[in-house]
Amino acid sequence: MSAAASARQILTQLHEVMAGRHHAQHKLDRVVEIIADSLTSEVCSIYLLREGELELFATRGLNPEAVHVTRMGVGEGLTGMIAKNIETLNLAEAKAHPDFLYRPETGEEKFHSFAGVPIVYRERAVGVLCVQHVEPRRYEDVEIEALQTTAMVLSELIAHKELVDDQDTIDLDEVPTECEVFEGLTLVKGLAAGRAVFHQPRVEIDQVVAEDIEAERQRVYRAFDKMRDQIDAMGREPEFGKGGEHVDILETYKMFAYDEGWSRRINEAIDSGLTAEAAIERVQQRTRMRMREIDDPLLADRMHDLEDLSNRLLRIVSGQLGTAATQGLRRDTILFARNLGPAELLEYDRRRLKGVVLEEGSLTAHVVIVARAMGVPVLGRVARVRSRVSQGDEVLVDADKGVVTLRPSQQLLEAFDARFTKSRERAAAYAELREVEPFTRDGTRITVMINAGLRDDVSALQLTGADGIGLFRTEFQFLVSSTLPARERQMRLYRDVLDAADGKPVIFRTVDIGGDKAVPYLDNATAERDENPAMGWRALRLSLEREGLLKAQARALLEAASGRQLSVMFPMVSEPWEFDAAKAIFEEQLDFLRERRKVLPEAIEYGCMLEVPSLAEVLDQLLPRLSFISIGTNDLTQFLFAADRANPKLAARYDWLSPSILRFLARVSANMVGSNVRIGVCGEMGGRRLEALALLGLGFTRLSITPAAVGPIKELVRKVYLPDLTSQMQRWLISPPADMRAALTEWALSNDIEIE
């Protein structure tokens, strides 16, 4: 008899037992008789978890007086080890196993063979189903399969109080209550506190036993078709574009989605009498058990991919497709997910979403770019955290230190709250500077602008009192869209931004996509995958090749700025001709609009990013054609140091206060003296107090930074006496100290300037 037929035979008889009007203990006694008879086994026993111990609730073959008497701890004896490890044991000689524990009251000394499977409820063992035999023998695979399927049905019956009396309280809902701390990779810095919410809520299975097996099979077939369509569609989504770890994930998804073995095992589970949902969960339980036995990290990761795909299939077949965003956030929330796309993140209420914790994630992922713009702290690569957190758990995220704390103690809460309080006090003090112009003590006016990329970001101009937007990243609209944004759609965004800025300057950077910001709708099928995406076919390089893309953006910007000033900045310029080519496209579109008597911008100024070091060597040639230049310190630094900023192993080499980067910046600043070209910094370096201090000392008076940094930088500026700082920086550049960061910190403190 097959495993499915054997399990179906047991389930049919169990259904008859459940239909009777007998009390729970009688039903449980009948259950062990049915299982023993079906497997021709001399012993069948059921242990259930009560008050933290496994208690013998029913048996056929052992001493009946041991029922509700024999108890053992989780991890104690063979039964306890099954519950602890959530694993199956199949032994020809039980006494030979090192964990064997003899209980004389059971009368089991004459039995040799032993097999046991966990009774699992919500990924946790709440009991154990065991069979034993006098003769030494290993149970057949079909018998083990039947036991495992039966254990799953028992789990549902126990959960619904159909096999236990009301007074027999089983430990079903015990969840972790102790404080746990996990480390991860800081993706977006910040502090956050809130209640845990799963991006994709777990599916609760209400019915395990099928009424119509063929109908359940058809439900699974339809779910597989829909899931495969979804996986194929992923390849066309921005987050699964060319290059990066997303490609590997997608390939793994495809492998499992079309794996006949996986679908066959689910069908076999349905054959045994389970519903579609229960069959998927049954196979998933088997996968989890296998995962616990795997030592190979790569293979374990692949099993996690299969589990993730199983959850997707389960959501499809159950019709529970929504995310927490569609249900709405009701309180301060820390969002937990395996991974997120940028469009998914934007669906959440920014007033309630306080932080994000991902089991995957990378520094270059699109969702990180959007989260940084939203001001939401993100911690990534927090392994297996979703299995340890429960919906509603209190959570603290310290993305500054790369730590997430689940169910914090009162002491940790108080310490965290103290940090929050200090942070809020500082924020309140910074808010008071909103209308204050940032002059240094010697009277030098510093221009402080913000970086933005979303329509809502523009509101930060009023909240912070910033001088304008020194960098508007136009690529966000491209990253969250599955198709190339139409010109009209782009124009509406740019016009809305200019309207919201209400006369304050806005510098639009043309789209910076490609390379490490791949979008599939622009993928070149003949191009090879970039080995180093950050230095690959991206930004202006891609825009000049895809001339239609830049033409559409030029038209959109020119029309949006009708009657107003337009400031355009080109990214990733490495040679003057690239700037000239890009400007020519804008001028061509300007002529096109002029011929059609469209309202033109009042004035247009062109600038470029200095992030490729080679451009610094030919600035003298380019300056006559520029209105402004902005140094992008993020890319510039990684190019100078040949240190990928997405690689955590190279974090120590990525230092903005290294003499080499400071000397480079000083030389660029000095070369600008005497020109009418404005120079500024628009990278993260300008938003950090100590690094901003260095920039001021190098002669930079224009900074474009994150909105959250505006207050702290304004406060810093007002404490600086620029002549002293400039003289000190010049001395350090000539003869650098052993530790520039320490030297600058000491100087700041001696001048009553806080650096935190």
From TrEMBL:
It catalyses: L-histidyl-[protein] + phosphoenolpyruvate = N(pros)-phospho-L-histidyl-[protein] + pyruvate. Its cofactor is Mg(2+). Gene3D superfamilies: 3.30.450.40, Phosphoenolpyruvate-binding domains, Phosphohistidine domain, PtsI, HPr-binding domain. One of its GO terms (molecular function) is phosphoenolpyruvate-protein phosphotransferase activity. It is found in: Cytoplasm. The keyword Kinase applies. SMART domains: GAF (SM00065). Keywords: Cytoplasm, Kinase, Magnesium, Metal-binding, Phosphotransferase system, Sugar transport, Transferase, Transport. Pfam families: GAF, PEP-utilisers_N, PEP-utilizers, PEP-utilizers_C. SUPFAM superfamilies: Enzyme I of the PEP:sugar phosphotransferase system HPr-binding (sub)domain, GAF domain-like, Phosphoenolpyruvate/pyruvate domain, Phosphohistidine domain. Residues 23-168 form the GAF domain. Its EC number is 2.7.3.9. Belongs to the PEP-utilizing enzyme family. This is phosphoenolpyruvate--protein phosphotransferase.
